[in-house]
Amino acid sequence: xxxxxxxxxxxxxxxxxxxxxxxxxxxxxxxxxxxxxxxxxxxxxxxxxxxxxxxxxxxxxxxxxxxxxxxxxxxxxxxxxxxxxxxxxxxxxxxxxxxxxxxxxxx
Length: 107
Fold this sequence. Notes:
Elements: E1 15-18, H1 20-25, E2 31-38, E3 46-53, E4 59-63, E5 65-71, E6 74-79, H2 81-96
Antiparallel strand pairs: 1-2, 2-3, 3-4, 5-6
């Protein structure tokens, strides 16, 4: 049995899902990372949740804004970051369960 070390997560990552490749190689850097996409406002505000695979670079972005039609023909935008986080987590879990990609070596 080999010892597995846990490296610090990259800045702004709030959730991480280990890929199949990462799990089989004992590498916790092969993962799907979740971050919030920020506006350019001061202070910056999250407008989406982004899931990015460090192995194959696949991404999924879930907007924090949802369109609702409470009345016939009326459009209403609601800020629902929890729904976006949930959708991104579900995508990250499903992707990590099957991704076997490895990043190209730098040297």
